[in-house]
Amino acid sequence: MSQYQLPVIDITEIPLVALETMNNVHREEVALINQLGELVIAGVEGNPDSEAITSKLNEWVVHTRAHFDGENQMMKEYGFPPYPVHLGEHQQALLRIESMQQQWLDDNQLDRLAEYIFVEWRDWFKAHVNSMDMVTARFLSQLI
Questions:
Q1: CA dihedral defined by 90, 91, 93, 95, rounded to 10 degrees?
Q2: Is 29 helix (H, G, I), strand (E, B) or coil?
Q3: In the chain, what is the straight-line distance between the N-terminal and C-terminal CA atoms, in Å?
Q4: How many angstroms separate the Cα of 85 from the Cα of each of 46, 69, 98, 116?
Q5: What pTM, to 2 d.p., does this model score?
Q6: Where are the beta strands (DSSP E) in 60-120?
Q7: What whole-number distance in Å separates Cα of residue 23 and Cα of residue 43?
């Protein structure tokens, strides 16, 4: 039995922000990470499908890039004052996700990937939505 519990994040527990477009992107992101989490747990429990994990991991990375690009564009377009700070956090998070993707491609270490998804990323995502995204969406909702 795995030490990790599904879902990675319960879709009903995603903090809601003031812009429905951002909420929708967050739901998509969480759906992808939960699908990846299922594949990772199956692998940890002895039934690894490296090809499926690689494919879902790539899908998640591509989605995350688009997710961050969309938010970054809105913040820039509407003159969100702490844009550089929020942008910086997106850049750091994306670098970390991409480094985990590369580690997976290099060594197929499920334990490292699982720890990242179920602990590090999950905690980061909840904190990011509850802080930066909450403030950003509140600001943007006044202008859009």
A1: 160
A2: helix
A3: 47
A4: 41, 14, 20, 23
A5: 0.95
A6: none
A7: 30
Residue with tokens 């990323």: 121
CA distance 137 to 98: 26
AA letter at 5? Q
Cα distances (Å, whole numbers) of residue 143 to 12, 46, 73, 79, 128: 27, 51, 14, 10, 22
* Cβ burial, residue 114 (10 Å; 0-12/13-18/19+): buried
Any idea where the domains of the chain sit in the sequence?
Answer: 11-141
pLDDT (tens digit per residue) in 60-111: 999 999 999 999 999 999 999 999 999 999 999 999 999 999 999 999 999 9
Contact residues for 100 (Cβ-Cβ < 8 A; gap 6+): 112, 113, 116
Query: Which CATH topology does 11-141 take?
Result: Four Helix Bundle (Hemerythrin (Met), subunit A) (1.20.120)
Residue type, 51: E
